[in-house]
Amino acid sequence: MNTRTTLPGFPYPLGVSIDDAGAQFAIFSRHAGSVTLLLFESTNPDSPFEEVFLDPVINRTGDIWHIWIQGIGDGQLYGYMIDGEYNPESGLRFNKHKLILDPHAKAVTGNFKWDLSDARGFDPSSPQLDLSFSTKKSAPGAPKCIAVKIDSNWLDRPLGRSMNESVIYELHVKGFTHHASSETQHGGTFRGLEEKIPYLKELGVNTVELMPIQEFDEEENINVNPLTGEKLKNYWGYSTISFFAPKGKFSSSGTMGEQVHEFREMVGALHRAGIEVILDVVFNHTAEGDQMGPTLCFRGIDNPIYYILEKKKRFYRNYSGCGNTFNCNHPIVRDFILDCLKYWVVEMHVDGFRFDLASILGRDQEGNILSNPPLLERIAEDPILRNTKIIAEAWDAAGAYQVGYFPGRWAEWNGKYRDDVRKFWRGDTGSVGLFATRLTGSSDLYGTKGPLHSINFITCHDGFTLNDLVSYNNKHNTANGERNRDGENYNLSYNFGIEGQPATPYIQTLRERQIRNFFCTLFLSQGIPMMTAGDEFRKTQQGNNNPYCQDNDISWINWSLLEQNRDVYRFVREMIGFRKEHPVLRKSSFFTGMQKEGEFSPDITWHGPGSGGPDWSESSHCIACCINGSSTDNGTRDVDFFMVFNASLYNKTFVLPPAPSGKPWRLKIDTSRRSPDDFLAPDREISPDGNTVRVQRFSSVVLISG
HEC string of 403-426? Predict the structure, then answer.
């Protein structure tokens, strides 16, 4: 029974708002018959709790249930019991016996291993399965919400860096520093990442893209590694439980609300170092899964509003491949997503978001792809989010592939860039033309918007590492417990004759050269470069291209590889610095190939071996381009570039065209050379002999003039 002083409260804002005398609670549910707030003393399974009944006459405004309670403060544990009709065949799955998380909770208890075995709304022993009804209480083992008071006078601000200056570094917060070789005091945490800021600055990246840090259950995976007997995990975290809450187990200072403050401290430290923070957010589905999954939050609040259901409303449409699909374009869900994004920007000061399987955000309430999706437009046009970077993974698990089609100011992971660059360097026929298009910003995809809408990448968390891309022809995912059936089969990789390790010195030399080729291409390309943490020193996953479940050495970054592959690291660091120095590599508009007014040469010309023109034929495997250094966005003059990319089996000689600047060409990059001659320092730039440059097979050469 409730013995505290209460007031009716207000329907807005949703979630918990703490003041000097108490706290305001508000939660949405349209179809609930009753709502009861539970206040817990601790996370112990037998913890006493108070029940606060919300009177539908006094404590309800429209579809919002609300109350103010005296004496509630920072750290209070709470949850809801929501009663209503349990009729799965009509889409309703209320169950008053299940503890329901507040969708707007700022933190969730992470100081114990959750037991969600009683969280299902049905009786799993019943032959009726989800049509049955469970009376088991889920509260003892379930996560609880934590009321958190956040300092609103934080002096930190998002950096607001121009998009063309971004160099994105994708990482997993735990995996980045959890390995003993990281030599951090707080490995595997937000603070551990903060400890690695000097490394990030030295490398030269200025944006970190964090794989999911919103609360998830790493124990939800039921599979076992058949090779070791190890229970597998949900390591990546693409199965969100609480969208406003930083993951407690990524906090070194505590998991009872401290995770919120530690996350903010990390963001502030990164900002002081000039590094932006982008969050990978997963609004396409939730951790509740299909009809056989647990009732944790949205299912028990208002199932037919939050999820896209089949015509037989007992079942969920599964455009995410994870059991359910969030009903993103229902007005209530749109508001929820916008509230969440604005919270992370206003209170946590993040600089942007990468939206997982973002095509789902463009589906209507029947699952159809919309021609003008209101949610995508609202995210882009919201005045609070207006300077926030928004990046779409422009596809989903149901066949939608929309690279080049996201509206307005949206940027996209350019999957076609990844594929076409891999094809070219693998030596596929007919790949030269597409490679040239990707190198120059993908005008076929972003012709009306500009190259800065293209997020260029060779690898990401999903797939081979860059080392494995040049070391394996096939995936090796047996350790995932799915008989090697999971993961992408279409890898466009090449092992140079031997699968994996060990390899001969000659093959190792070719592999390292190929890694340089990929990095050279990435950082010379128009668009925004993104790389994956550890690729700069040849991180390996032993050929596993889907280690979503591997919370172990397969996924964690082994920092000893930095010393073993210092030459590759140096090359990547120099390439990043080189890109930053030269504005002609970071244009907001496409090359036109046309002569500009007042100039005597076009902004880009294409060349083939010898003195002939470019060979765009199916059999061609090499291409060169000359870029006029005067074709910068602001009209200032950069150096001229002559870039050669030779993916053929043969060495090639190219006749050098006259530099637009009229000055001699100097050799800057040659990926066939060993360090330090692969990337030459300014005082060691070498002028080529005569009027030609010889380019070794499987290599890139860059000359500059001016």
Answer: CCCCCCCCEEECHHHHHHHHHHHH
DSSP conformational letter for 682: G
The pair of structure tokens assigned to 225 is 């590694």
**By C-alpha distance, which of 410, 389, 148, 166 is closest to 254?**
148
> Whole-prediction pTM value?
0.97
Instruction: Give me the sheet containing 640-646, strands edge to edge.
Output: 604-607, 622-627, 640-646, 699-705, 666-670
Catalytic residue, chosen from 393, 462, 535, 574, is 393
pLDDT at 2 over 80: no
pLDDT tens-digit series, residues 73-126: 999 999 999 999 999 999 999 999 999 999 999 999 988 889 999 999 999 999
Point out the catalytic residue in the list 102, 356, 468, 678.
356
**HSE on the CB side for 701, CA within 13 Å?**
29
Helix (H) or strand (E) holding 337: helix 331-346
Q: Evaluate whether 622 touches 432 at the Cβ level (below 8 Å).
A: yes
Give me the mean pLDDT over the 555-567 stretch. 98
Sign for the pseudo-dihedral over CA of 605, 606, 610, 612: negative
* Selection from 436, 429, 463 nearest residue 548 by Cα: 463
Mean residue pLDDT across the chain = 96
For the chain, the distance separating the N- and C-terminal CA atoms, rounded to the nearest angstrom, is 80
Measure the CA–CA gap between 314 and 304, rounded to whole angstroms.
Answer: 10
Distance CA 586, CA 166 (A): 9
Q: Looking at residue 684, what is its pLDDT? A: 87
Q: Quick check: is 393 catalytic?
A: yes
Measured CA to CA in angstroms, residue 363 lies from 241, 329, 359, 380 at distances of 22, 7, 7, 16
Enter the DSSP assignment of 343: H
